[in-house]
Structure formats: structure tokens, C-alpha cells
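Progress note, project year one: complex with pyridoxal-5'-phosphate.
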Amino acid sequence: MTLPNFAFFKGRIVPYSEAKVGVLTHTLNYGTGVFGGLRGYWNNDEQQLFIFRPLDHYRRFLESAKLLLMELPYSESDAVRFTIDLLKAENLRTDCYIRPICYYGDEIIGVRLHGLHPELTIVSIPFGSYVENEEGSHVTISSWKRVDDNMIPARGKIAGAYVNSAFIKTDAQRAGFDEAIVLNQDGHVSEGSAENFFIVRKGVVCTPPITENILEGITRRTVMMLLRDDLGLEVAERQIDRTEVYLAEEAFFCGTGVQIAAITKVDYRPVGTGKLGPITRDLRRLYFDVVRGRVPKYRELCTPVYQK
Ligand SMILES: Cc1ncc(COP(=O)(O)O)c(C=O)c1O
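Model obtained:
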């Protein structure tokens, strides 16, 4: 991976090589940080870089920080401004990924959340696909369970909780699968290792509700809106049983990283026809137009980086 040239660090943009922390940093030792993941999409016709739903991403980022008692002196609009400045400094003219991190910079020994000092940093790198088989992934049901709200809340994008995601992803990939579907402690479907999950059953698009230990995904919200308002489909937020996935007509993951990835096989069982289904196909087409600023009614979801 190419490293960034710059970072927003301690309130200003510095060369990436200067954005360093000490080994005793609290978050490095205890996972007491939160992060975000945004995408910038390059629109070649307009020679413009659009950040997708940055205010929504930073709103969730600040909420995640709030869960860890982090009080940053910045609003979501400040964070969007820092991000635009950073992307301009990087002079990015390609699709990119943006990674804000809020961490406790204190270099101390002692596990706790109170009486510590949060710091904000943001970096960006050019970025393409996150998964290889976006139109037909083969996934497994993980033997790992999703972290519970009373363990580490999945609704916050909390650094330490991603050890759970890392176990899930590594075991799935080492067993030859692209990804894994993760169940809650009670056996219902929660989400993927780092993406939200949908199935189509009897023509209704279903996704687990926000009380099922999921991250409240920005892409999930976008997808529900596009399915209802543009593709004219019924969308239900409800519990999903494991075996419903085996009987689904279609299934897909969504998230900023994965975008919209069709799931065509689960543990060697074909989902529906075992090929990319019509709903996932139409949704993918529409989504990629929306994020690049090509759909006028959704244009306000895309924030331009460069002044014209
Ligand atoms: C655990 C988890 N679920 C879902 C998502 C999708 O969220 P979003 O669409 O906001 O990127 C992510 C990615 O950030 C994630 O890490």
C-alpha cells in the first residue's frame, strides 16, 4: 500500500512522516479509539472528487467517540473541512479512502476511559475495490459471534472491537471463503466482518435492525432509501434466521469499503440461482451513479473537494 503524503494531526496538516505516536499511547495498548471510513469518488467528466455523505460519517464518528467519553473540540462540519483541506493537499484525482481516527494520546499505564485526552487524526489514500468478487462472493457463517452491546457496542466504530472482525475475516479467508456472515449470541444474523447484510426473501428486502449488534451503516441507510424510493421495493428491518439465508433469492453485503457485494454462495449452497441477482445488479448500478454525483436528486449527498 502506498502511504499518504500528509496527515491531519494535532490540529494541522503535516507530512505523514511527522504524524507519529509513542508506543505507550493508550489506544495502541488498550484499543480505546474510534475510527471512520469514508470514500472519495473521482468523477472524470466533471474533473471533481466527491466525498460521499461526509457529514453523516462524521456524525457517527463523533457519536462513537462519545461512547468512549471522548470530547473533541470539533464539530462534524469542522471535520469535513479538515478532510477537504487534506484531500487538496494530497491533490487526489482518483477514488480514495479517508480514515479519521480519534485516539487517546495519553502515554500511561492504566485501563479506563475517564481523565484522558482525545486526539483527532485523518489520512487518505487512493483506493479501489475492497473485495475481489463483488459480483459473486462465496461466504461462510462464522463460528465467531458478534460482539454484544453490553461487551463492546458494535454501534460505535471502536478500534478494539475490530479484533472480533479480524478473527472473523481471517478464519473465513484461510478456509477459502471471501467473507463471513456473523451471528449474534442468540443465533440471529448480525452483519459481516465489516459490512452490513441484506437478503431478499419472497420479494422483500430484509436487513437486521439496529438493535442486532450492527454498525449503523451509512451505506445501509443509503441502500434502504434507494431500494424503496428508486427501485420501488419493500424493505423490512427484522431479525433474520440463519437458514433464511440458505433459502434467500438474493443476498448482499454493503458498506463504504465493500460498496455493494453480491453473495452468491453460502457454505457451498447457492443463493437463489447462484448468480448475481436482478435486485443486487440494479442496486449496484444505481449506487455507483449516486456516489459519483451522477444522480441529480442525490447530488447533495456528494461533497465536492475542488472549487470550480
Ligand atoms: C462492522 C461494520 N459494519 C458495517 C459497516 C458499514 O458501514 P458504512 O456503510 O457506514 O461504511 C462497517 C464499515 O465501516 C463496519 O466496520
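The mean pLDDT is 97.
Helices lie at 26-30, 54-67, 76-90, 162-174, 218-229, 242-247, 278-291.
No further modelling is planned for this target in the current period.
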